[in-house]
């Protein structure tokens, strides 16, 4: 089953609990527009290469399309459609005004193979091709895998250049709202970088209160990029024991369950560039007699006997092949689509709670909405206001999902999709 078909299975399952016309479910199962184009990149050597870009504008029922741009060698249309679908669901769950209008896109490229000048040329050329199809009230991109505030700043700059000679109804102060995730000095919101991790933390805190779990709880996190490293740091500072973390090169594991000093791990990763070089951090060195004793694979990390497993990397890492081996009490999805539909069934039968991505990692797009709103209104919010508003949104979404979970006796993912369907259907007048 491909990733998009797997995503749609969740929608169809939830639809059984909330009676809606077949045409409406079909509408939500089909992207409104898919954009695919080829463009040229000039390398520093003078060599000209062809690159492929994608953008899926999934559904604008609730407002402008909204979603991230990722730079990755394995980006393809099937993946981008799935990401766009999840964004539609996620923003309906978060109940933000453009929540049902989701776009998602990317470039088929390994950014590590590019110089900074090449990366800027790639971004600007991509923006030129995409400019007629994006805008503050049409489609608002944001960072995703391997993209950041600097890249968003380049997009804004190039977009303004592209439309300056066109007759436009967009006001000058609104132009920066064409993307979110910008640098603060260029109209970005305070708190945006850590928003996804912080939003996840707010949900996790509410969950363990409901379940009456007592800290300290052990946590394994697969993925140590922006999302994984931020939630690791937040959990460490709030009484959780982060005993395993990983990046693309592998994982480190504290078998004593004392947990890592995540601040030191983050510093070491920044210095060395990979986590396996951070073997002697915190208590692991005191425990290990051999270099390999605390080093494990990403696959082994998923199967550790921890309280909470957090997939925070890419899609489809929990599958029917490894779900039976997972021993965590809670799978808390901070990546997009980390659990396949088949794995979902296995985990549910085992009694393992799966908190879905469309709830757990929605903090990023919520603060993206706050950034968009600040740009449109010409405002600048304090960090305290951003974080307080984020906490309120995350708690409200969790409470709604918890209520549906209890009343309809469904798992958390199905409950989240039911909530999304209710809000999308209401907007459609159904």
Index terms:
5-stranded mixed beta sheet, 7-stranded mixed beta sheet, 430 residues, Rossmann fold, alpha/beta, 12 strands, 44% helix
CATH topology of the domain at 32-186: Rossmann fold
CATH architecture identity of the domain at 32-186: 3-Layer(aba) Sandwich
**Helix count, DSSP H or I runs of 4 or more residues:** 15
Q: In angstroms, what separates the terminal alpha carbons?
A: 31 Å
CATH H level of the domain at 32-186: which superfamily? Answer: Leucine Dehydrogenase, chain A, domain 1
How are strands sequenced across the largest beta sheet? 9-8-7-6-10-11-12
Helicity, as a percent range: 40-55%
Q: H/E order of the elements?
A: HHEEEHEHEHHEHEEHHEHEEHEHHHH
Proportion of beta-strand residues: 15-25%
Major sheet description: 7 strands, mixed
Low-pLDDT sequence parts: none
The overall pLDDT, averaged over residues, is: 90
Class derived from helix and strand content? alpha/beta
Strand tally, please?
12
As a whole number of angstroms, the C-alpha radius of gyration is 21 Å
Assign an overall shape.
globular
Quick one: CATH class of the domain at 32-186? Answer: Alpha Beta
């Amino acid at each position: 089953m491909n990733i998009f078909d797997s995503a749609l299975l969740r929608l169809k399952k939830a639809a059984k609990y909330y009676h809606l016309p077949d045409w409406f479910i079909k509408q939500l199962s089909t992207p409104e527009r898919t954009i695919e184009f080829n463009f040229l990149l000039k390398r520093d050597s003078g060599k000209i290469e062809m690159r492929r870009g994608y953008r899926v504008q999934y559904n604008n029922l609730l407002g402008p399309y909204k979603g991230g741009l990722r730079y990755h060698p394995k980006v393809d249309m099937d993946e981008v459609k799935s990401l766009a679908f999840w964004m539609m669901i996620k923003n309906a769950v978060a109940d933000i005004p453009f929540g049902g209008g989701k776009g998602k896109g990317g470039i088929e490229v390994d950014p590590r193979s590019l110089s900074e000048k090449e990366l800027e040329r790639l971004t600007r050329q991509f923006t030129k091709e995409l400019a007629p199809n994006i805008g503050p009230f049409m489609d608002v991109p944001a960072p995703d895998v391997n993209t950041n505030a600097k890249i968003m700043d380049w997009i804004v700059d190039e977009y303004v250049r592209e439309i300056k000679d066109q007759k436009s109804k967009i006001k000058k102060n609104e132009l920066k709202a064409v993307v979110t995730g910008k640098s603060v000095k260029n109209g970005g919101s305070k708190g945006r970088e850590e928003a996804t991790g912080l939003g996840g933390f707010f949900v996790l805190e509410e969950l363990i209160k409901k379940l009456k779990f007592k800290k300290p709880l052990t946590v394994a996190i697969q993925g140590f990029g922006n999302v994984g490293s931020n939630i690791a740091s937040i959990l460490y500072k709030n009484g959780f024991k982060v005993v395993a973390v990983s990046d693309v090169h592998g994982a480190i594991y504290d078998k004593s369950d004392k947990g890592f000093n995540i601040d030191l791990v983050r510093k070491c990763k920044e210095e060395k560039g990979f986590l396996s070089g951070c073997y002697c951090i915190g208590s692991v060195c005191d425990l290990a007699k051999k270099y390999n004793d605390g080093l494990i694979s990403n696959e082994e990390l998923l199967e550790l006997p921890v309280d909470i497993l957090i997939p925070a990397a890419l899609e489809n890492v929990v599958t029917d092949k490894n779900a039976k081996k997972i021993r965590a009490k809670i799978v808390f999805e901070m990546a997009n689509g980390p659990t396949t539909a088949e794995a979902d069934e296995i985990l549910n039968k085992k009694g393992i709670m799966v908190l879905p991505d469309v709830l757990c990692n929605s903090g990023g797009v919520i603060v993206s909405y706050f950034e968009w709103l600040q740009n449109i209104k010409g405002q600048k919010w304090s960090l305290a206001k951003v974080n307080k508003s984020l906490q309120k949104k995350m708690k409200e979404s969790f409470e709604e999902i918890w209520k549906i979970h209890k009343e309809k006796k469904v798992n958390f993912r199905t409950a989240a999709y039911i909530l999304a369907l209710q809000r999308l259907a209401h907007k459609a007048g159904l």
